[in-house]
Amino acid sequence: MPYYPHSEPSGGIGATSDAKTAAPALDPIPREQLASITIDDATQHIHCRFFAFDTSVVIEFGPHPHLDTGIALAGQLIAICREYERLFSRTLPHSDVSRINRAHGEWVRIDPRTADLIGEAVHYCTQSEGTFDITIGTLCRLWNWKARQVPNSTEIAQALRHVNYRAIEMSYGYSADQTGGDNSNGSSNDDEAWCRLRDPQAAIDLGGIAKGWIADRLCETIQFAGYEHFLIDLGGNTVLHGRPADQQPWNIGIPNPLDTGHSIATLQLTDVSIVTSGIYERRFTADNITYHHIIDPHTGYPARTNLVSVTIIARTSLDAEGYSTTVLTLGAHRAARFIAAHPAILGALLIRDDGTLLRFGIG
């Protein structure tokens, strides 16, 4: 797929900036060269492994009717992931998200797929009871789990003033102008999408939702190619369709947060998506305080919750990921009410900090 061109239309926003007219550069992706495609001769399933979205990705599909087309599909899936990472990343300089974040509140033309993802993400923000906000980018810049960096309270207070997903504005189908979307002075184009942040210091981070959207697009691509049996695993964001080569349901182990070398439960599933969010992996301890990576957009600090892990099962990966962080952040009591109120959640497995297992819709 070609990278979407970001040219400035006539009658547009005003003075140009690099944020609005970025060239279709191919930013290097960390460990991009790590990719392999293998074939199981016994089952005729194709296995694709590579690194993307700062995680390990595994895709399996089969049996392949024609080897050449199966290998071509595997290569296409890798290319799709590379393209989406270059669109949605907060850290790659030419991504749509980076360009929006450095546009200082001006309109930015973006790929329609980026616009679709942002629109979906805003929906989950509104559903989250305030626990999920994609304009958390200002806070994400402060926290550095690799360097074990804890920002001071003044920095957090300043960043919090710029966390509000309602600052996101979108325009579709015409050249946006400075009036905020009145198309009377713009030219109609159904393929155009524009975005801006009314708060020039706000910053979008799609890390909590993008893999769900991407997994659903990969699912559509594999099905369009004629495959009904496949697994997509984007670092714990998993789509299961049909059955594996042995014709049994897919077996998915849920890690035990208190003993990560073992599973606390094993689920047999098919034709669903499953996403696990937890506070037990990406964390560090400083001055005898443990900090995990799920930030509360109200406080700017890691969310205080009595849940250490949440697994959500849904028909789409977007639903599973869109709700998993919210359920985790709400804590056990509020989470139970939230799950009951959202029928898109087909099942949930919650693990409390004392190791207690709570099941919803799972036998």
UniProtKB/TrEMBL annotation:
SUPFAM superfamilies xrefs: ApbE-like
Keyword Flavoprotein assigned: yes
UniProt GO molecular function: metal ion binding; transferase activity
Binding site for Mg(2+): 208, 325
Catalytic activity as recorded in UniProt: L-threonyl-[protein] + FAD = FMN-L-threonyl-[protein] + AMP + H(+)
Cofactors, names only: Mg(2+); Mn(2+)
Gene3D superfamilies: ApbE-like domains
Cofactor note: Magnesium. Can also use manganese.
Pfam families with a match to the protein in the record: ApbE
Enzyme Commission identifier(s): 2.7.1.180
Residue ranges of the region described as Disordered: 1-22
Alphabetized UniProt keyword annotations: FAD, Flavoprotein, Lipoprotein, Magnesium, Metal-binding, Transferase
Keyword Ribonucleoprotein: no
Assigned protein family: Belongs to the ApbE family.
Designated name of the protein: FAD:protein FMN transferase
Organism name: Bifidobacterium scardovii
